[in-house]
Design brief:
By secondary structure, the protein is mainly β. It has two domains: about 35 residues; about 270 residues, Methylamine Dehydrogenase, Chain H (7 Propeller). About 10% of the residues lie in helices and about 50% in strands. It has two helices and 23 strands. An eight-stranded mixed sheet has the order 11-12-13-14-18-17-16-15, with no helix packed on it. About 40% of the residues are buried.
């Protein structure tokens, strides 16, 4: 069910708003309401023209400039943020769970416009489904959301045509309880939970097809198209060494029903035990290990380029490009 929540409309003229501000408390002595409003509108306009990082976790989201890393905003949410993705227009989608007073959990997808801090749209997921992650089709604007049933952990893929309306549902026995979706530039949808089997929904097809990887990888925390390959945030499950399990990005090329790992990016200091999620933006990985937002080169990996120490625990992250 599609339910519009909030749409910002500026129908009042500047003078009317300024008059209202003049009657409000809180302005410093000698401050002109018109000047204050003008400054706020300029800040909003500048933010709308700047690429931004959205990140969040337990009922709090933060917004930074990208790639500068300057804090732009912090705002509360009434829901737990599971993951984030963004589309070609810079809109941000949040997969989230609302918990009632009785403890019942309900999943939703919330959409924010670029620079916004209030949802403009809410998408419902099927009953008893907990949303995992999302990906936007650059060719159609379709939104793929992965989820699992909280009773039996059965995975599900929901596709919202144009990013709205009722979802079309897809099932695959090749997926585990934490499936990660990724569209490529041609509109083919790849979905994986890790291991050595995944699923592919070729553009125009109506059924997920099994894809077998040439290697077994650990649980996947994020999947994305890097312009040439599907890039998977995961780890090598056969190389456990106590807590020293390191996050890698596996680059996967798909041909027919076979996925071949063509390269691996390794990142200094990125441990699996507190890995968080990530977002691939061009030649940079933006990730959330621990209580931070960290930048690495892609596909080179190696040492971190920059670390932002955030005041609130963040797991989900995406880069919203200015429209």
């Amino acid at each position: 069910m599609f339910r519009p929540i909030h749409a910002l409309r500026y129908t009042a003229c500047l003078c009317a708003v300024a008059s209202a501000l003049a009657g409000c408390a809180g302005l410093p002595p000698g401050t002109s309401p018109v000047a204050s409003l003008h400054k706020a509108l300029l800040a909003r306009s500048a933010r709308s023209q700047t690429d931004l990082i959205y990140s969040g976790g337990d009922r709090t989201a933060v917004v930074y400039t990208y790639p500068g890393g300057i804090l732009e905003d912090t705002f509360k949410t009434p829901f737990l943020i599971h993951a984030m993705c963004s589309d070609a227009k810079g809109d941000v989608f949040v997969t989230a769970v609302v918990t009632s007073k009785s403890g019942v959990q309900t999943g939703y997808i919330y959409e924010y416009t670029h620079g916004g801090k209030s949802p403009v749209t809410t998408l419902d997921v099927p009953a008893r489904e907990i949303p995992v992650n999302c990906s936007s089709d650059p060719t159609t604007g379709n939104l793929a959301v992965t989820s699992y049933n909280f009773r039996n952990f059965t995975p599900l893929v929901e596709i919202y045509a144009g990013g709205s309306g009722e979802a079309k549902l897809y099932h695959s026995v090749e997926l585990g309880a934490n499936p990660q979706p990724a569209y490529d530039a041609s509109g083919n949808l790849f979905v994986t939970s890790g291991g050595n089997v995944s699923a592919l929904l070729p553009k125009g097809k109506q059924q997920l097809e099994k894809v077998t990887l040439n290697e077994t990888i650990g649980n996947v925390a994020h999947a994305q198209w890097d312009g040439k390959y599907f890039a998977l945030q995961s780890y090598a499950p056969t190389k456990h060494n106590g807590e020293n399990i390191w996050v890698h990005y596996f680059r996967v090329q798909i041909s027919g029903t076979t996925g071949t790992i063509t390269g691996i990016s390794r990142f200094a200091g990125w441990r699996q035990k507190n890995a968080g999620q990530s977002w691939l933006q061009g030649n940079t990985v933006v990730a959330t290990p621990g209580n931070s937002i960290t930048f690495w080169k892609y596909p080179a990996g190696g040492k971190a380029l920059k670390v932002l120490h955030v005041s609130h625990p963040s797991q989900a992250v995406t880069v919203s490009l200015a429209p």
